[in-house]
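queue> pop job 88
queue> type: inverse folding (structure -> sequence)
queue> payload:
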């Protein structure tokens, strides 16, 4: 378990050190994960891909001990088929591919992907469609007619979500060819939020280092554009839970352009009030703010401004005031800080439903499938 808080001082981003770290990572070009060996995906030689996946080894052990099935809503996509073939070879996760059987098999053969063992389900020929329509009508509570439900279930995102709802799969991964909204909408309508939760939020887990020993969590970076105070409390709670699942002992910093009231603005008040409510909601978790990023990660700055704070200078779980800041923040960490970014991991739902970037590659699909299934 990783408990040491990351240090983000300027030395972490110095070009010379970054080059040294890259050179050390390039010494290894093979990995063994889930019982399979592979070289760089698509022949690329990225420093990030040379890391030993200690984090993913642990998640795979969870899946080996607890058999689960994931549904991919875009079964004909080459990236999905590539990842599915590797997951099937590892033997630790059941696979459902949604789409026409002939099209999926043809695409797999064309790409050289062995999907033996995968269950292929076509909405057009699914024998349980009538039962699924009836169930969806009940779930929508009069907001959709039977004909409207049937029309939506012809779409892979709704169909796959209902497979999870009806217990034929444990979790879902989609969005390689459609928007985040098209992943979240069916999930909200059919899977719904967990008891006590009022929103779906998201976080990114960012890792760095040879064994990905540096780990931080950031939320919400993808879903809630302008969260309220209460939304921010829920985002902090769910992000802290997700952080723990990845071996992070959360120290939660609410970020702002203001530190401890140094500036006046509605967004500053928003974060101040959210901090107060979160401390009440999570009395056993270190929470502090509002604070600027340097106060959150630099002990020298943080302890000068928040003497004695267990968070200031040592934060590893960051809560942003809105999705604009969050989305920019995690991408800066990934692009300039050399972090691997895993997510967005959707939080607050009754079952794990996660979204892929339309620009994702097979490696990212593989990793997100493991994360999605392990977080049940």
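queue> result:
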């Amino acid at each position: 378990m990783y408990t040491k808080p990351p240090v983000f001082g300027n030395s972490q981003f110095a070009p010379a050190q970054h080059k040294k770290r890259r050179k050390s990572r390039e010494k290894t070009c093979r990995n063994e994960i889930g019982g399979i060996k592979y070289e760089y995906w698509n022949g690329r030689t990225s420093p990030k891909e040379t890391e030993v996946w200690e984090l993913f080894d642990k998640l795979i052990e969870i899946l080996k001990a607890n058999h689960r099935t994931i549904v991919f809503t875009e079964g004909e996509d080459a990236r999905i088929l590539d990842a599915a073939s590797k997951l099937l070879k590892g033997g630790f996760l059941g696979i459902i591919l949604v789409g026409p059987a002939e099209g999926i098999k043809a695409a797999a053969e064309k790409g050289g992907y062995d999907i033996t063992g995968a269950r292929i389900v076509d909405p057009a020929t699914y024998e349980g469609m009538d039962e699924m329509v009836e169930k969806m009508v009940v779930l929508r509570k009069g907001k959709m007619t039977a004909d409207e439900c049937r029309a939506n279930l012809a779409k892979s995102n709704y169909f796959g979500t209902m497979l999870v709802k009806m217990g034929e799969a444990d979790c879902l991964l989609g969005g390689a060819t459609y928007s985040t909204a098209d992943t979240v909408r069916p999930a909200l309508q059919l899977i719904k939020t967990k008891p006590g939760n009022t929103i779906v939020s998201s976080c990114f887990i960012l890792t760095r280092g040879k064994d990905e020993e540096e780990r931080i969590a950031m939320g919400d970076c993808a879903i809630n554009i302008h969260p309220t105070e209460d939304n921010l409390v829920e985002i902090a709670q769910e992000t802290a839970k997700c952080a723990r699942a990845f071996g992070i002992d959360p120290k939660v910093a609410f970020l702002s352009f203001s530190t401890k009231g140094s500036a006046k603005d509605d967004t500053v008040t928003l974060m101040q009030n959210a901090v107060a409510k979160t401390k009440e909601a999570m009395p056993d978790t270190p929470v502090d703010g509002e604070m600027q990023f340097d106060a959150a990660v630099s002990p020298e700055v943080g302890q000068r401004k928040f003497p004695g704070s267990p968070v200031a200078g040592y934060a590893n779980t960051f809560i942003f005031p809105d999705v604009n800041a969050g989305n920019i923040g995690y991408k800066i960490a990934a692009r300039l800080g050399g972090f691997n970014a895993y997510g967005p991991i959707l939080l607050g739902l009754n079952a794990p439903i996660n979204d892929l970037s339309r620009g994702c590659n097979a490696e990212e699909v593989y990793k997100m499938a493991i994360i999605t299934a392990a977080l049940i």
